[in-house]
């Protein structure tokens, strides 16, 4: 593995985090001790490869569409997050986390395995396709009465890493959290705080450990209210999967 890349990973992971996405790829960094050398090599290779979007589309259909939907918008209130529009390197890193067991999700562990997804090239391809998808204009919202309080908390504790508008950071592998479903943000927040998400950044865990329930509701409501620039127009459908039955919904995650 490239020593500079490994050093960059260790440095960035010690001071920044990601907040979650695939059931999700979305939110938080990973813990290096649980990451095998092989997974670090695979991650390092994947972020350097030129992606094949067409192959990524095929892989998405085979491994992702059933739970995340043809538009990649997930299912509000079900535990399946929106992954459309997530930063490519974040998707790659989260897939690597699932493979390493740093994220506790048996479904994603299976669908991100080498048997289902293949190696670094396939990871790069599907991540690029996911990143190219526009985000939903109708994500699940939280409690609008608390948005101003949530903004104050977000600006103080979250904006430095996740960006002023929750846009994330491609280079630091910090996810886009703007426009995510409120219930998914809540579930991941709780899992990070109680240790179920083993890829949580220590700085973030310390910051959120003593949040009161009203503070948590306020900041996550604010995050859900942030609107990305790459939002699909109302009524948009992904023509890549016109024949997919959009009335179908996966079983709710508990």
Structural overview:
The chain is an all-alpha fold and 254 residues long. It has one domain: Orthogonal Bundle (Cytochrome Bc1 Complex, Chain D, domain 2). The chain has helices at 3-15, 37-48, 53-63, 65-68, 88-100, 106-111, 114-117, 120-132, 147-157, 159-162, 182-194, 202-208, 213-225. Helix 2 (37-48) runs antiparallel to helix 5, helix 9 (147-157) packs across helix 13 and helix 11 (182-194) crosses helix 13 (213-225). The longest helix has 13 residues, at 3-15. The radius of gyration is 17 Å and the shape is globular. The relative contact order is 0.20.
The CATH homology group name: Cytochrome c-like domain
Going by CATH, the architecture would be: Orthogonal Bundle
Structural class: mainly alpha
Radius of gyration, in angstroms, nearest whole number: 17 Å
Share of helix among residues? Answer: 40-55%
Order of helices and strands: HHHHHHHHHHHHH
Average predicted local confidence, pLDDT = 84
What is the overall number of helices? 13
Strand content: under 5%
Uncertain stretches: 1-35
What would the keywords be for this entry?
single chain; mainly alpha; 49% helix; 254 residues; 13 helices; Cytochrome Bc1 Complex, Chain D, domain 2; disordered N terminus
